[in-house]
Write a structure and sequence with these properties.
The protein is built from 14 helices and 18 strands. It is α+β, with helices and mostly antiparallel strands and about 425 residues long. The strands form 5 sheets. A 5-stranded antiparallel sheet has the order 2-3-1-6-8, with no helix packed on it. The chain is globular and about 75 Å long. Bound molecules: zinc ion (ZN).
Length: about 425
Amino acid sequence: MEESLSIRAVCDPMPAPGDFLVASGARYWKIDDKLDLQGAAHFQLDIKSLARNEDKLGQAMAFGEGYLVAPEALLPLPPAENNTLLRIEFELGPELSAISALPSSPDGSYALQRRDLGEIGPFLLGRHISVEPLPGDSSLRLAMPNSGIRLERKVLFEWVSATAKSNRRFWRRSPVEKGLVILVPAPGSPAIPFGRALSVGGVSVAVLVGEKADARALYDDWVLTHELIHLGSPIMRDTGAWLNEGIATFYEPVIRARAGWKTEDDVWREWISQMPRGLRAMSDIGLSNAGRGGIYWGGAIFVLMAEIEALSASGGRMGFSDCLRLALDKGGNTTARWTSEDLISLCDAALGSPALSRLFALHVQSGSPLDLAALWRRLGVSLGSDGKIAYAQESELAWVRPLIIWGGQDRPEPISSAGFFQPD
Ligand SMILES: [Zn+2]
């Protein structure tokens, strides 16, 4: 793959070519000192060095015959140029393609806003990249390079299809109209190291798949499920990322248990052992002040409590996941921007009870004491020192357990996949 990438950019307003460079970027770019006859600036991006030195999803990564590059990393524009409208075009050699969720104009250029750069999904650039509709889901396309991951393409397609199906079953529909799933080989890795969903200018979910991953690793992993859950909720950032991350963190093992890829015991074991990581956010500082660990597991505790509160207030008629589906029906998918309060008040209105606003008031701006051990006792679940889960049927909240784990009284049909997990 080429060591440098030629980019043509037109901006409105157009900075002088000398103003394009930002200090941190200077080492990677060569910028023509004159605009061309159409008023466009031309850059050479040393993509090989950028990918080697940064090597992360938010910047650039290299694989066998190409690169995954974040739009933010493409243009050496100072962040101050926030209202700039950009039109960029790659000058790609023969056999090279650029794939992105961002729609391109008939002339092959991409139009975007400077201020959105950080929220636009990445470009997959390189040779031998395929993009195909996902079998069984007309709302998603799957893009991946034809080499670099040891697993057969058929197995990868089945995995993404089965995971998308498990996600549709939770949302009871495709959460977005059009999305692009991008699989990128992670050299040397046997696992799924990272994923990211982005929704401005087109919905994309990029997932790194270990070069050495086997089929078991795909279904044992949480990353793709987590990212696909994000597609079904509006982005809510007014009080931080905890509500979006809490939703994805909480329902990820639930959705995989419903698909038959893990057991109910696994789900409770994960919650009982991991939720203490979110306790400080819920009890002391408040979810809106939580750091990285706190937004995921503090958010997940909030969602568990929201499920319990909603089911209790409605006599089992409606859980928090029902209210998330209601929000989705009202257009609240990942392309929408809501406040966390928008969602909470929608739930309370549907419940006819201020149950969730009450929970919000206790744990978001600041914390309130929370006794997780007492919560597990009320739910009738315990984790023994031998790692085994035990259930108490007579406990106060035993009745909400199947509603939370299975979405009803009965365990749903498992989703068979890749000849690996067959329904039993
Ligand atoms: Zn997430």
